[in-house]
């Protein structure tokens, strides 16, 4: 008898991607609209993505069982 499939958390699917080495990438928030209030240095910093800390990685990976 076949096993059960695990569902991925929809919110995590939209926000995170896994790298080939198993790290978790993310994009910064606050870059969608009303950007005139932010100065250019802050907007430039938010453009770059980031890597989730090692402490939070296991919980994100549980939300994304198939990567």
TrEMBL record:
Name the keywords, alphabetized. Answer: Ribonucleoprotein, Ribosomal protein
Task: Classify the source by domain of life.
Answer: Bacteria
Q: Which SUPFAM superfamilies match?
A: L35p-like (SSF143034)
Instruction: List, alphabetically, the GO terms of the cellular component aspect.
Output: large ribosomal subunit
Decide whether keyword Ribonucleoprotein is in the record: yes
The Gene Ontology biological process terms listed for this entry are: translation
One function term, GO molecular function aspect: structural constituent of ribosome
Has the keyword Ribonucleoprotein been applied to this entry?
yes
Give the protein family: Belongs to the bacterial ribosomal protein bL35 family.
What protein name does the entry list? Large ribosomal subunit protein bL35
Species classification:
Bacteria, Deltaproteobacteria, SAR324 cluster
């Amino acid at each position: 008898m076949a096993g059960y499939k695990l569902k991925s958390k929809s919110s995590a699917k939209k926000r995170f991607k896994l790298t080939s080495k198993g790290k978790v990438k993310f994009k910064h928030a606050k870059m969608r609209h009303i950007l005139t209030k932010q100065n250019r240095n802050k907007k430039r910093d938010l453009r770059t993505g980031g890597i989730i800390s090692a402490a939070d990685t296991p919980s994100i990976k549980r939300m994304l069982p198939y990567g």
